Amino acid sequence: MPDVLPPTTTDAIPKAITQAVQEATTAFFTTSCGLTHVPDAAGDEEAAGAGIMSAISFLGDRPWAFAMALPETSAVALAKAFAGFEIPFDSQDMGDLLGEVVNVIAGDISARLNAEGIQAQMSLPMSVRGADVTTLVPHGVATNRLLFEGPHGRCWLDLVSDRFDGLTFRQPGMG
């Protein structure tokens, strides 16, 4: 059986993963709040001030993760568009809502990858809120950023792949 995800020897995230993330996120945002993918964005968009981020990881043929980050104004607008009512930024409900958004998108990503023969079992999402929210990643991993914009603000997804420096992530249950 041929490798559906060839071994990573450079700092590139496999196209199949990036494509599944972009398609699943676009499908969700198109129906929920009108955000669209901005191709070839500069990739340096950061949250100015308070922001919220939710991350989820995948195990399977290759370990990887993504984190979705939104500045406060975008999070409040997205929450209202998605839920249909106001959700205060500093409430527990905001973290729950963003975790649910990431969970829905991740389920679609997993289904898309599995349809291509790529095993991708997702974890539970984890949300954090703070000032100047950014994804910090270890050396030796590949990253990619996808930007989405629309009438309800902007958000970005940071994809983080497995290590390409010869080291491996610890697997669950392994000492």
TrEMBL record:
Annotated ranges, domain Chemotaxis phosphatase CheX-like: 53-141
Keyword Metal-binding: no
Keywords: Chemotaxis
InterPro entries: CheC-like_sf (IPR028976), CheX-like_dom (IPR028051)
SUPFAM superfamilies: CheC-like (SSF103039)
Keyword set includes ATP-binding: no
Lineage: superkingdom: Bacteria
UniProt protein name: Chemotaxis protein CheX
Organism expressing this protein natively: Gemmata algarum
